[in-house]
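In practice, a research group might receive sequence data for several interacting partners and want a quick structural hypothesis before committing to experiments. The following worked case mirrors that situation: the sequences arrive first, and a predicted assembly follows.
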Amino acid sequence: MTNKTDPGGDVRLTGIAKTYGAFTAVHPLDLTVPQGSFFALLGASGCGKTTTLRMIAGLEEPSAGTVFLGDQDVTALPPYKRPVNTVFQSYALFPHLDIFENVAFGLRRRGLKSVKKQVDEMLDLVQLGEQARKKPHQLSGGQQQRVAVARALINHPKVLLLDEPLGALDLKLRRQMQLELKRIQTEVGITFVHVTHDQEEAMTMADTVAVMNAGRVEQLGAPTDLYENPRTTFVANFLGTSNFIEAEVDSESGEEIVLKAGGGKLVLPEARCSAPATTGGKVLVGVRPEKISLTHADDAGEIPEGRNRITGRIADSSFIGVSTQYVVDSPVCSGFEVYAQNIDRDPRLVPGAEVVLHWNPAHTFGLDAAQDADAGVEEAA
Amino acid sequence: MSTLTEAPPPLAPQAPEPKPPKRRGRWTPYWLLLPGILWLVVFFALPMIYQASTSVQTGSLEEGYKVTWHFATYWDALSAYWPQFVRSVLYAGTATILCLLLGYPLAYLIAFRAGRWKNLIMILVIAPFFTSFLIRTLAWKTILADGGPVVGALNTLHVLDVTDWLGMTAGDRVLATPLAVVCGLTYNFLPFMILPLYTSLERIDGRLHEAAGDLYARPWTTFRKVTFPLSMPGVVSGTLLTFIPAAGDYVNADLLGSTDTRMVGNVIQTQFLRVLDYPTAAALSFILMAAILLMVTLYIRRSGTEDLV
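A structural hypothesis for the assembly, expressed as tokens:
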């Protein structure tokens, strides 16, 4: 099995790009996926994530750039010579072969004669030992998916590529398979590169997520980093929901930036601002809906000092069990979303009520005001 | 208390069982089948019965024929004309193999590589059907004419030496030899091979090729292990559509061959239309039919296509 310290499983893309005529599917891209990690390429359809994956697999020839597996330049190698395997979208199982032969396919092509033991072990790993002699069409979607994983994993590839592997499954099965894949990845220690458009899937499974948009990587990092400190509005909107306030930089101390928005003041830690902040310049101040507390305007005095606050009126509220989602109209931003846990519900918080929204400045993030605040909203839907 | 637990009385306890509603449209499938069945009865079943009875008649044209259950006709016909039977199977078989060898790469090209030329190539495959079968076959007389460019080229390339050795040609001639008949059969039935092959190749999901490549199969291995097995339904129907009509064909042997290349179709035609020996002709038809049915059954059993999706 793969050695943890062997760099053979690193995937390095340097300046890789793909153009189809005048259309650029992937802009020159540098990316390193370390050995043994679970890496997700996340983005809406047409963002270039699948093209990137296919270039690693060798199914698509890059227009420029180099693909390295470990220290080996594999850019010119055809897929059948690359030590990577793919789990295809909708699986692409061979319909004329039974499950056993589907799984044994890669081993046989490499000239192995006695494959029975390995195939049986692999089928046991994915809990399909009983189905070995069935044809793919006799299995359910989830079982076919596991066959596709087994068929790829049995070859001990240096990298396993997964192209929307859970897209065809229903929600419940998808959650189950997410955990299953994560378990298998931890068990075999192979580098996984997973392409998905499902942000929850990427966040629950991957160690590192690269958010792609229009052929570029917008941001790369651990799921919590991406969520807590997005650096573009696309990432902020594509991963979860964000509220934005356009504010003017009032002063800047090196540690904190103080901003003016509609007569009030907001504080933003310097480290959480990805835009250049010069006094008088504009910054988009973002905050996640669940970080915000709502207090009725009559109790405004009880709000502790040092919190960012803005005033507004509740436009809409919907009760969804664990939490209540409010939409608040405020002079600085209309349609502010607030998710409040249903711990102690204030009965005065109904549509029409005047409220103060307040949150810990540490949860604020600052973005370049030149971008579209709604980027990625459609795609995330 | 007991009244509470008692089940409510049935609403109409003694009402007679309502008649099950008459299912409308119960006979519809049969009505829809009727025209087809009538057609088959009138134009297939009845002629078959008529021919079957003819084959066991004896008599002469002047005195008329009577059913005498003279099964010996079958034996006589077979012993007199077995070389033509063998020849039919041989020629049709060779033509079928040639059709497969020529048609498969073309069908593959159309299905996977032709891109925007796909429709044009398909039209070119079908276009010959717009001219008469006879004219197309006669054209081959010109193509294979003695001393013509084709024969000259084959001669220069020493292809004729090989076919001579195989007994397919005689000397410098191609016309009026088995090779000419096989060429005609191959040409005429090629589209019947290409179309089913194309249909089954075209249905193959392109991602299966990618998956095979991803699992270390070289292009040729991908073809052997994935593409070809998945195209087997097309191979089987293509070979059947070629072999069956080719085995009974008489036009090619008539126009391109000689008396030494007569196939069973020619014999049946002559018996029916010139010798007017109807019982022998009918018996020969039945023998041919039975032989083809037997071969086809064995072939389908062997190729195991019922296992393919």
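Before designing any experiment, note the following. Chain A has two domains: 7-233, 235-380. Residues 1-5 of chain A have pLDDT under 50 and may be disordered.
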